[in-house]
Amino acid sequence: MPTAWDSTAHAAEYDYLANAPRWLRKRFYEHYQEIKALPGNVSSIIEVGCATGELARYLIDRYPTASYTGFDVSHAAIERAREKCTGEFICGHFQDDHRTAELVICRDVVHHQENPWKFLNDLWRITQRRLVVRLRTGSKTERKSQLLYGMRVPYWVLSEWELRRWAKPGFMWFNDTEGPLPLWLRGAVWVSRHL
To answer: Is the residue at 115 inside a domain?
Structure first.
């Protein structure tokens, strides 16, 4: 059954930094709070929802001796990630694999799951040291939906109170807020690619 993430438009959208110089990618990602909170050194990384490998390139540069594995359900995105990145990229669900990592990072994926709490538990199961998640939070848990690439997908807003109750040692979450710097950089890169 096709998903919204199988769309080639999805892969194209998340490839916005493909031609950006290394310094610009570094500046772009280091603006985010969840990136500032990453540990100084790790030996293994799993990224769930790696898309076309943009964050992977940053993480591989930051941790050059760490093993990196990225998971995504989009065939087009994984193909693009393999074209431009080192590391291992797997098209499929991380739950079907049995590896673990010191650092597990998952940005903007939890809120699109049918069962976000089970998904969080699955992420925690593969985490050896630190789990970093960016998701949507609010005062109460609400299930909504979002139209992406012509398909309806789940869109959860998780209760901050419930998330605090669920939290484990080594778990860090960040509410998805994108400041003006990343939006400006993304816009500048998009314009330069399409002029």
So the answer is: yes
How many residues can be counted in the chain? 195
CA 88 centroid distance within chain = 15
> Does some domain include residue 54?
yes
**What pLDDT digit, counting tens, does each position of 66-79 carry?**
999 999 999 999 99
Q: Which domain holds residue 54?
A: 4-187
Asked if 111 and 49 touch (Cβ cutoff 8 Å), the reply is: no
d(CA 67, CA 90): 14
* Block residue for tokens 């807020």: 177
Phi-psi region of 104 (alpha: psi -120 to 50; beta: other; left: phi over 0): beta
Structural domain includes residue 195: no
pLDDT in tens, 25-45: 898 888 888 898 899 999 999
pTM: predicted TM-score of the whole model, two decimal places: 0.87
State the helix-helix crossing angle for 180-194 and 22-29, rounded to 10 degrees: 150
Look at residue 193 and tell me if it is in a domain: no
Nearest to 110 by CA among 59, 166, 45: 166
Whole-Å CA distances, 32 to 4, 172, 175, 179, 182: 26, 13, 11, 8, 8
Task: Say if strands 137-138 and 67-72 run parallel, antiparallel, or are unpaired.
Answer: unpaired
Total domains, the chain: 1
CATH number at residue 92: 3.40.50.150
- Going by pLDDT thresholds of 50, 70 and 90, the confidence category of residue 180 is very low
